[in-house]
Design brief:
This protein is of the alpha/beta class. The chain has 10 helices and 14 strands.
């Protein structure tokens, strides 16, 4: 059975990975149990932390020792400044982040069930944060060995993916919602990783293996995968299904686990790991991130990931 990746990332780039997509500031509220309708519950903890799918994946990679760049938009408010400060502190290059005067940075209110660590997200995004294709710079988009997208601003993501493909740069995408126009984007993606819910919303298919076959057949992506929370992940590559179980770690909050998984996946792709090794590595990064509160609360170092891989 083949257990390698194709296409491989090129060499000779200033960054290992470039991410274009969402960032957010999360208001995380931990409660002793998930509240029923028309009830009151006293919160256990309330914190404000930076998050967002692609921004968090770039921070995860930086924590693992990779050179990363993030491209996106923030508002000129307190939360935008928090996001920029967090990227700087993590060592993520962010000169291509545009600050939009008068706009409110993307935010989310996240309810965390204390016993399980599972979360519910309520989010909002100012329309002025939408990135248009003409606002992207080709040189910046193609400055990494891998391009990571979430497809939220579809027209700009299509432009970015086309530039990456022309430059021989693999495109990874994290899809958890259906965005109008995404059908034009998906054929430009090499590594398609969706949430468990995306195939149900997009294809009407709930069974993971059937959904992966359907995505592969329709869009011809070399690699397709679905993340399954505490069940790990399943991938379809070279005509074979690969099931990779989750790791058992103390879980405080599952926020950002999927973003961390994508960061771990890109690390494996960059460093020549096999498909099986990469999925296992990505699951380890995701599991360890659940140790802390927030999308980046428990992001591990490379040494921490290696220790978990060694002991489990």
């Amino acid at each position: 059975m083949r257990d390698d990746f194709e296409p491989r990332p090129p060499t000779g780039k200033p960054f290992d990975a470039v991410g274009f997509g969402l960032n957010a500031v999360d208001h995380l509220i931990t409660v002793p149990h998930y509240p029923a309708f028309n009830t009151k519950v006293q919160l256990r903890e309330y914190v404000v932390r930076p998050g967002g799918q692609v921004a968090t994946a770039m921070v995860a990679l930086a924590r693992l020792g990779c050179r990363t760049r993030y491209i996106g938009k923030v508002g000129d408010d307190e939360f935008g400044r928090l996001q920029l400060r967090s990227l700087a502190e993590a060592g993520v290059e962010h000169s291509q982040v545009k600050v939009v005067p008068g706009a409110t940075s993307q935010l989310a209110f996240i309810l965390i069930d204390e016993p399980s660590g599972e979360r519910t997200i309520i989010w909002g995004r100012d329309p002025r944060l939408i990135m248009r294709p003409e606002e992207l710079e080709r040189e910046a988009i193609t400055s990494g060995r891998v391009l990571h997208l979430d497809g939220h601003d579809v027209a700009a993501a299509i432009q970015a993916a086309r530039w990456a493909r022309e430059a021989g740069i693999p495109v990874v995408i994290d899809l958890d919602n259906f965005y109008p126009g995404v059908e034009e984007l998906l054929p430009l993606v090499d590594y398609l990783i969706t949430s468990a819910e995306f195939p149900k919303r997009f294809l009407g298919i709930a069974e993971p293996e059937e959904a992966l076959r359907a995505l592969k057949r329709r869009y011809q992506n070399p690699f397709v995968a679905i993340t399954l929370g505490d069940q790990g992940a399943i991938a379809y590559c070279h005509g074979v299904f690969i099931h990779s179980p989750a790791f058992r770690v103390p879980c405080r909050d599952t926020t950002g686990a999927g973003d961390a998984f994508r960061g771990g996946f890109i690390y494996g792709l960059l460093n020549g790991l096999s498909v099986t090794e990469t999925l296992r590595f990505a699951n380890a990064v995701a599991g360890l991130n659940c140790r802390g509160v927030g999308a980046r609360g428990g992001l591990p170092t490379l040494a921490e990931v290696q220790e978990l891989l060694r002991t489990q």
